[in-house]
C-alpha cells in the first residue's frame, strides 16, 4: 500500500526544498525531474526513503489520590517524533524540575501536575494538567475495653487499649461513660488525655452496666467501644 503523494514545481534556481506538515516516521522515495523551457522533461532522479522527525507528541500526566497525605503521580510519554527523548520537565504545583518527582508524592493539599518532553527537534506541548487531593485522615477506630469487677463489692474497674487505627492523626483524648443496662441512664462519665488510663468506680448499685469508651483525634470521634459488666451487691 502506498501513502499519499504530491508534486510541486519550483524555480530552476532551487537546490533544496522544505516540506512541512509530514507525520513522523519513514517517508519517500522522492524524485526530481528537470523540465526545460521547451517543456522537455529529464528522467526523474529518485531517492530512497528518509525519516521524518518532529517534536514529540503531547504526553499525559495523571494525579490520583493515594494513602494518607499522598498522591500517586504517573507520567506517560507518547510518540517521540522519530527522535529519541533527550529531556523532560515536570511541573508540580507550579514548581518546574527536570528530576522525576517521587510517587507516592507527599502533600497536605491538592496536587496539580503536568509535564513535557524534548527531542532533537524541540519540546512537545505541555500535557493537560491533572489534579487530585491527597488521601485524607479519618476519625480513629474503637478502643478495646478490659473490665474487672467484684472486688470489692459495688466497685467497677476498667481500662482500655488504643484502637488499631488513629485515623492518621494522633489521638487527643478518650471519652468514657458507664450507663445502666436497664434504662440507659448515665451512672458516671469522664474524659482522659491521649493515653489509655484506668477508671475505678466505687459505691455503685448492683446490676448490669454498659461501658462505652470513644477515642478522638483532630478529625473527630470514632465509634464507641462497648462492653457489658455486672456490679455485685455491696
Task: Provide a compact summary of the structure.
With 234 residues, this protein is mainly β. The protein has no helices and 19 strands.
How would you describe what is shown here?
- The chain has no helices and 19 strands.
- The chain is mainly beta and 234 residues long.
- Among the domains are: 60-132, Sandwich (Immunoglobulin-like); 144-231, Immunoglobulins (Immunoglobulin-like, Sandwich).
- The strands form 6 sheets. Strands 14, 15, 17, 18 and 19 form a 5-stranded antiparallel sheet that branches.
- A hairpin with a 4-residue loop joins strand 5 (60-65) and strand 6.
- The radius of gyration is 37 Å and the shape is rod-shaped.
In the CATH hierarchy, the third-tier topology of the domain at 144-231 is known as Immunoglobulin-like
CATH level 1 class label of the domain at 144-231: Mainly Beta
User: Helix content range of the residues, please?
Assistant: under 10%
Rg calculated over all Cα atoms: 37 Å
CATH architecture of the domain at 144-231: Sandwich
Largest sheet geometry: 5 strands, antiparallel
| Class from secondary-structure proportions | mainly beta
Give the overall form: rod-shaped
Amino acid at each position: 500500500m502506498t501513502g499519499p503523494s504530491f508534486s510541486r514545481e519550483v524555480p530552476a534556481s532551487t537546490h533544496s526544498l522544505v516540506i512541512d506538515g509530514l507525520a513522523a516516521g519513514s517517508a519517500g522515495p522522492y524524485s526530481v525531474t528537470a523540465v526545460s523551457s521547451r517543456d522537455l522533461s529529464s528522467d526523474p532522479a529518485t531517492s530512497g526513503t528518509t525519516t521524518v522527525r518532529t517534536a514529540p507528541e503531547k504526553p499525559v500526566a495523571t494525579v490520583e489520590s493515594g494513602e494518607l497525605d499522598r498522591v500517586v503521580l504517573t507520567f506517560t510519554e507518547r510518540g517521540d517524533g522519530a527522535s529519541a527523548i533527550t529531556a523532560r520537565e515536570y511541573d508540580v504545583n507550579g514548581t518546574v524540575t527536570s528530576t522525576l518527582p517521587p510517587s507516592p508524592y507527599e502533600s497536605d493539599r491538592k496536587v496539580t501536575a503536568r509535564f513535557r518532553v524534548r527531542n532533537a527537534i524541540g519540546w512537545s506541548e505541555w500535557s493537560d494538567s491533572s489534579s487530585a487531593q491527597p488521601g485524607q485522615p479519618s476519625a480513629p477506630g474503637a478502643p478495646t475495653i478490659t473490665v474487672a469487677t467484684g472486688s470489692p463489692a459495688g466497685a467497677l474497674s476498667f481500662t482500655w487499649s488504643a484502637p488499631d487505627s488513629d485515623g492518621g492523626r494522633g489521638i487527643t483524648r478518650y471519652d468514657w461513660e458507664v450507663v445502666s443496662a436497664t434504662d440507659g441512664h448515665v451512672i458516671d462519665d469522664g474524659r482522659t488525655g491521649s493515653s489509655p488510663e484506668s477508671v475505678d468506680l466505687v459505691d455503685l448499685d448492683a446490676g448490669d452496666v454498659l461501658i462505652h469508651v470513644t477515642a478522638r483525634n483532630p478529625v473527630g470521634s470514632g465509634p464507641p467501644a462497648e462492653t457489658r459488666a455486672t456490679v455485685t451487691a455491696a
